Amino acid sequence: MDVSQVISSINKKNEKGISELYLVACGGSLVDMYPSKYFLESEAKSVVTGLYTANEFVHATPKRLNENSVVIVCSHGGNTPESVEAAKISMELGAQTIGLTHNKDANLLKYSNHAFLYEWGAESDVKNNPMAIILKLAVEVLNVTEEYVYYEAFKDGMEKINEIIKNGEELVEERARVFANRYQKEDLFYVLSSGASYGHAYGFSICSLMEMQWLNAAPIHSGEYFHGPFEVTDKEIPFILMMNEGRTRPLDERAQAFLDKYAEKVEVVDAKELGISKIREEVVEFFNPVLFYSILCVYREALAEVRKHPLETRRYMGKVSY
Amino acid sequence: MDVSQVISSINKKNEKGISELYLVACGGSLVDMYPSKYFLESEAKSVVTGLYTANEFVHATPKRLNENSVVIVCSHGGNTPESVEAAKISMELGAQTIGLTHNKDANLLKYSNHAFLYEWGAESDVKNNPMAIILKLAVEVLNVTEEYVYYEAFKDGMEKINEIIKNGEELVEERARVFANRYQKEDLFYVLSSGASYGHAYGFSICSLMEMQWLNAAPIHSGEYFHGPFEVTDKEIPFILMMNEGRTRPLDERAQAFLDKYAEKVEVVDAKELGISKIREEVVEFFNPVLFYSILCVYREALAEVRKHPLETRRYMGKVSY
Fold it and tell me: What pTM, to 2 d.p., does this model score?
């Protein structure tokens, strides 16, 4: 079943239709959900959304959760205990669950009313990756609950984003090598962005830098930067700024102007310059994080290579008990 | 007017009553709103909430905002341009605005249908500080829209928290000095917490450490720690863990158990040990961040003293244009 059929069938199940869409996962999978949270919080007038790290959802389950709620749970390996538990609890409370995983034998599937076994890897079209699938689900939920006026523009954007990314990846390959050479000895990076991409500023920090490179990192919302964080800025601290196309671009531009003046180690990744404007302006902002994920993968690969720290290296995850 | 009267009068204004409570601010004021977001997302079955850094709210205003919405805007100095603009936009869209500030001449007041000039400083009772006022407003909103079953327990907790804090501050004074001496040469701290207190893990990072001490810092949600961030853990990296009493305590305990094993520079601030359990268990979790704010102020003062970097020191904020 495709996303449209899944949401349409759930919406018809109850008289009231869908009233909530909860997004529940851990780490990188939670990051993949942020654009959908941003999309619904921005666009929806009726359906309510909530984004939860799975163990918090399990221990402090929202009282709003009911049989008209949809809970999307995503787990790459499909067996993260707290994610599986979140799906189980949701099902017990009568909500409809949608499980996303890359593992056809996942425990998560036992508690998924609907499931998507997604594609993964550099060869897959991004529209079949979890971030895009979850965003498509969110768009469908909006469209069945109140009709999304830019539904066709969004679908058109989803058809275009993979090629935009492929071009972008080529454009940044040399830049990423220069970046990796220049910053190979750094042990801390701040990652700035806004809007739909703030989740990916968080994701690049915790997954790509902390988990895969054992480097210190922190996300900063471009809008929040001026209200505390900017006081650490000097010519020695490295910043990565992901500049969005769309409504929150002025926030990123303001951060850029400040960094231009007071910092020296600044890497700007600009979605506009990378060609995202081929997508219609009414929906382009929701595609920024899809682009940034793939583009920043080129950067992290270059960094891993020059630092001789392969991206798969772990000391705790899957190796010790916790 | 007190919080109860303000919310009751707003709720009677429209036939439908209050349908949304938006929380909009920047930096430290935004931090003060997080417990209310957590409270409503957890407890409310009807009213919807949203937490926004002001400039994102201004540039990507949620389409849901309407004449049944309440928008709380908080700004200590009351003239933060994007916060004032957020209140102005909200008012223009017909929402009811509540402004909180410490400045009786604030521009924010021009766009506030209701206003609270709050108390500030070590001598004030915390129930008159913005974090508590906003939480009381959120509780009133829940109570008028669907009746909050633990309303009396919450009010009782609000009467008790100031004394709990005073006792706690005495308890940690010597510990804070030891902490400051031990960690005075560190240039990075990770701050962990969960539930209602996650916002304060963020707040201690961006306000107390980054802004006031020019130290690198990042918040980590205790539940997310195991899904990426924990890979940076070693015996050299300092962690501050704020342990909540209440439903998300198991998340903090899990982080503590891991840190006990793999880290050495760990400062635990435990709300339970500091006496918060005098507040009824049905509501205690919402008071953790009120306690943590004051307790961590003792830590940051000790750190500022030993590092000879006064808390008021700024290089950019209010000194250069941005």
Answer: 0.98
Q: Residue B142: what are its φ and ψ, rounded to 5°? A: -60, -45
Q: Which CATH number fits domain A156-307: 3.40.50.10490, 3.30.70.240, 3.40.50.300, 1.10.510.10?
A: 3.40.50.10490
DSSP B5-68: HHHHHHHHHSTT---EEEEEE-HHHHHTTHHHHHHHHHH-SS-EEEEEEHHHHHHT--TT--TT
Please indicate whether, in this complex, the C-beta atoms of A30 and B229 are within 8 angstroms of each other: no
Handedness of CA A248, A250, A251, A253 (dihedral sign): positive
Residue intervals of chain B classified under CATH 3.40.50.10490 are: 3-146, 157-307
B interface test, pick of A30, A56, A249, A315 with most B CB neighbours within 10 Å: A56
Distance in Å, alpha carbon of B276 to nearest chain A alpha carbon: 19
Using CB atoms, which residue from B44, B56, B210 is nearest to A248?
A: B56
Interface test with A, best of B23, B227, B234, B254 (most A CBs within 10 A): B227
Closest Cβ opposite residue A64 in set B45, B221, B237 = B45
* Portions of chain A given CATH number 3.40.50.10490: 3-146, 156-307
With CB atoms and an 8 Å threshold, state whether A224 touches B26. yes
Among A232, A286, A300, A309, pick the best mutation site for testing chain B contact (most B Cβ within 10 A): A232
Q: How far apart are CA A142 and CA A48, in angstroms?
A: 10
From the list A28, A305, A17, the residue with the least C-alpha distance to B226 is A28
How many CB pairs (< 8 A) connect A and B? Answer: 173
Mark yes or no for CB contact A56/B232 under 8 Å: no
Mean pLDDT by 10 residues, chain A (322 residues): 93 93 98 98 98 98 98 98 98 98 98 96 92 98 97 98 98 98 98 98 98 98 98 98 98 98 98 98 98 98 98 97 96
Domain A3-146 sits in CATH 3.40.190.10? no
Sign of CA dihedral A297, A299, A302, A303: negative
Task: Give the containing element (helix H, strand E) for B221.
Answer: strand B216-221
Nearest to B282 by CA among B246, B244, B243: B246
Establish whether this prediction's ipTM goes over 0.90: yes
| Tens digit of each residue's pLDDT (9 = 90 or more) over B140-190 | 999 999 999 999 999 999 999 999 999 999 999 999 999 999 999 999 999
Q: How far is B208 from chain A (nearest CA, A)?
A: 8
Q: Which two tokens stand for residue A220?
A: 């900063």
Cβ-Cβ contacts under 8 Å, A204 against chain B: none
Cβ distance B44 to A30 less than 8 Å, yes or no, reads: no
Architecture of domain B157-307: 3-Layer(aba) Sandwich (3.40)
